[in-house]
Amino acid sequence: MLRMHQEREAIMRIRARIDAASDTDEDLSPDNHTSWKGPRVQFGSPDRNGKILATKFVHQHIQIDPGAQEMELHLRTFLYQCVGGFGSRKHFRKKDLPLLDGMVVSVYNLITVSYVSMLDSQDGLDIIRVTDSWRNQGPRHDYVLAQNENSDELFVARILKVFRLKARGEWYSIAYIHPYKIGRRNKSTGYINLIDTKTRNFMFSESIIRSCVVLSPNGHDSPGSEHVLWDLEGPDMYIRLQDI
After folding, report:
1. With contact defined as beta carbons under 8 Å apart, do 55 and 71 qualify?
2. Residues 174, 180, 182, 184, Cα dihedral to 10°
3. How many domains does the chain have?
4. Which of 22-36, 96-110, 209-223 has the lowest mean pLDDT?
5. Where is this region: Disordered (predicted)?
6. Which residue pairs from 52-55 have beta carbons closer than 8 angstroms and sit at least 24 positions apart in sequence?
7. In this predicted structure, what is the pLDDT of residue 138?
8. Number of H helices, E strands in the chain
């Protein structure tokens, strides 16, 4: 399983370099770390459909994702609690939540995350793909390590959608995620077990720390399947090095 994963990762890195070379901003190349001067977390590769209404965006995603039936309610709640000006963030009723009518979103298919390596203190750049059609071979939704504001607890999230939404006159960079809790390390395999929260949620893009590698021992990357976090070598040693 590990060898298959390593081969797949090598191919994906080659593809990422090719894709980066064709992007309008050459700084996206993973080999061009020292010249990167953009924001720590940045969206790229905008969806070809351009800006769309938030209501249409939610409706379209619900059609292809059975687990997203509460997406509209979750987004309205997220905006109420995390975007200032709507009212009390803790005590509210459903009727207090903002409506999505009139709000506009811009959808993206790529995230870049700049970081300082914990291995050699060199600048690095992660490229995270989020698309429902990756090279005509089905969806690709990469995983990230994330940490919410005002919390020390890390978690793993599968990125389902990334978009910028305009609310109360300002644009916000947001990710729709399937979160996993980080469990204990398996003494036999060395992998870290992940606990499926069986929920969907939203977070600001700044909550993303790094990309990460998640494996499914049974070969099925679907809800309810067993998932483990691989951090045994390379830049994915983030959690292991944190504990030293």
Report:
1. no
2. -170
3. 1
4. 22-36
5. 22-41
6. 52/104, 52/105, 52/107, 53/100, 53/102, 53/103, 53/104, 53/105, 54/100, 54/103, 54/104, 54/105, 54/165, 55/100, 55/101, 55/103
7. 86
8. 4, 11
CA-nearest of 172, 53, 46, 59 to 109 is 46
- Alpha carbons within 13 angstroms on the beta-carbon side of residue 128 total 29
164-182 b/e with 16+ CB inside 10 Å = b? bbebeeeebbbbbbbbbeb
Q: How far out from the chain centre does Cα 176 lie?
A: 7
| Closest C-alpha to 52, from 105, 5, 7, 96 | 105
Identify the pLDDT of residue 50: 84
CA-only gyration radius of the chain, Å: 18
* Percentage with pLDDT > 90 across the chain: 47
For 27, how many CA atoms within 13 A lie in the half-sphere containing its CB? Answer: 15
Alpha helices, H only, 23-149: 54-64, 71-82
Residues 150-161: tens digit of each pLDDT: 788 899 999 999
**Rounded Cα gap, residues 86 and 3, in angstroms:** 50
- Kindly report the pTM of this predicted structure: 0.81
Residues spanned by the domain of 179 = 2-242
**Residue 7: pLDDT band by 50, 70, 90 thresholds?**
low
How far is residue 98 from each of residues 83, 92, 159, 235, measured CA to CA in Å? 11, 11, 24, 40
Start-to-end CA span in the chain (Å)? 28
Report the candidate in 202, 154, 148 with the shortest Cα–Cα distance to residue 175.
Answer: 202
